[in-house]
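tool_call predict_complex ligand=oxa(dethia)-CoA
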Amino acid sequence: MPKPPPLGVKISGTGRAVPDKILNNQYFVDRLDTTDAWIRERTGILERRVVSPGESTATLATAAARVALADAKMTPADIDAIIVATITPECSFPSTACFVQQALEAPQVPAFDIAAACSGFIYGLSIASYMIHSGVYRNVLLIGAETMSRITDYEDRNTCILFGDGAGAAILSATDGLDGPCILHHQLHAQGNGTSMLCVPAGGSRLPPSRMTIDERLHYVKMQGREVYKLAVKCNFDLVDSTIAEAGLDPDDLAIVIPHQSNLRIIESARERLKLPPERMFTNIQRYGNTSAASIPLGLDECRKTGRVKSGDTILLVAFGAGLTWGSALIRL
Ligand code: UT7
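tool_result ok
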């Protein structure tokens, strides 16, 4: 594939929203054959947020979008397109983005979802950036939002301890040149022979809800954890390494890496191989678990709002997830 050009696109605002309800590890210890120590040591997770009745992917997405709009000093009328990255949409169709558009009372601009699982926000960033690069769109609202708790099997100790709910949003805007804030480099990949490694087998056209036996529990997340783990460790390192090499940078040029939060050990392994100090590899999995497409925008907003990154910094976003899909975005803020 040809090397993608730098894109005159900047992040002009970010926001995040998580549900109030917290599930700590004790919740699982009380119900399953597991321990707080096992969950902490194998995943790094201490607690995760989950939605309550009345909340959904669109309510979280809308809340995050409102914060991002305020941060960018914009109103919904300033937005030229809405993209929601999610694998837990409001319903099969219409898109979650259309629900967000309605809730924001945004103008009749294009609104659509993309399903690239944990890599969804990176995929969305690339799509939104090319839309802006085309000159047709100036400001795109991109949201990564998930209610993983709605597809998690709370009787399966292999997976239920991992996932949480949340949403993060970014406003991407056209810039005048490539000297200031811009997308320096980006990569997207997929490998479809890994579809069964991490999936929800039922609920689509292969096994529709009308033919599903609830007892088989196929409407919940299934994961070959160990196999996915091994691929994620290799992929995380390779992505950081190849993205900065192709951009002509080295790890010291990065203010921070914001990886998808799948497992603290996966993140730590990449950090050690890259010889990055802990403060330059972002983690918040301890508090939120794995929030799929929401994890990177949650981290991005937290880094911006807590001063861990500042204007002029170069940051790297990397994700690996179901599909299998993976991708990266190197951004000068
Ligand atoms: O976000 C997209 C990408 N996702 C990922 O990258 C996640 C990748 N996978 C993982 O994070 C890890 O594989 C897990 C955290 C899911 C599992 O950790 P692991 O170190 O790979 O454990 P394992 O699956 O190899 O299982 C080891 C043992 C098994 O017992 P036996 O067969 O050795 O007796 C499991 O049954 O741990 C057992 N186990 C548990 N024990 C206590 C699995 N889950 C639990 C649990 N509590 N919750």
